[in-house]
Amino acid sequence: MMATLYYIHDPMCSWCWGYRPTWHQLETNLPSEINVEYVAGGLAPDSDEAMPIALQQSIQSHWHTIQAKLGTEFNFDFWEKNTPRRSTYNACRAVIAAKNQGLEKEMLAAIQQGYYLQALNPSDKSTLITLAQELAKQNPMMNTTQFSADLSSAATQTELMRQIELARTLTHRGFPSLVLEYQGKQHFIAHDYQDNAITLKQIMQYL
Predict the structure, then answer these.
(1) Which residues of 90-116 are buried (b: 16+ CB within 10 A; e: fewer)?
(2) pLDDT at residue 61 above 90?
(3) How far apart are the C-alpha atoms of 189 and 178, rounded to whole Å?
(4) 149-187: buried (b, 16+ CB within 10 Å) or exposed (e) per residue?
């Protein structure tokens, strides 16, 4: 019987960026009978308002904490080059739009690298379209015309709301979170940010 491991995340969640290397090790080491489903939790709804300075400073503080604890790389030029907004739904929609073309993970990686390493702003649709265009150069599966249309489509918005509701149903513990569903039961999996083996052992105990 197949089990499902839900990975609850947000493309603009800095702790998800910090967890990324370990998560990929875990995903690679999972047994084949476990299906992985990415769930965009929607960290912050659409907004055109500039982020308050106090919030900018708070998020930068989180970046420094993650960098110190996990060794994660951040490009702090983001805060000087952009007008930050507390708005992640566009980035979530971009991942969903790319999933329509089988490129969910690739777009998630492009957004995270663009945001945290290249100081780009994924709150802006123009940034997301540019990332899709860059992805298309590497992967012919990416149809940028379709991506742009899907990014703003009603179907994508409906899917985002479904994923956000699913994330809230599964857990209220924030991002990233892991929930294993097996034989009709759901189990919260406490992840270790630096050792995938610890998390994998916990998952295997339920199977």
Answers:
(1) bbbbbbbbbbbbebbebbbbbbbbbbb
(2) yes
(3) 5
(4) ebbebeebeebbeebbebbeebbeeebbbbbbbbeeeee
Is residue 96 within 8 A of residue 163, CB to CB? The reply is: yes
Give the residue among 152, 55, 53, 156 at the shortest CA–CA distance from 99. 156
The residue type at 22 = T
pTM of the model: 0.97
Q: Which two tokens stand for residue 58?
A: 């708070």
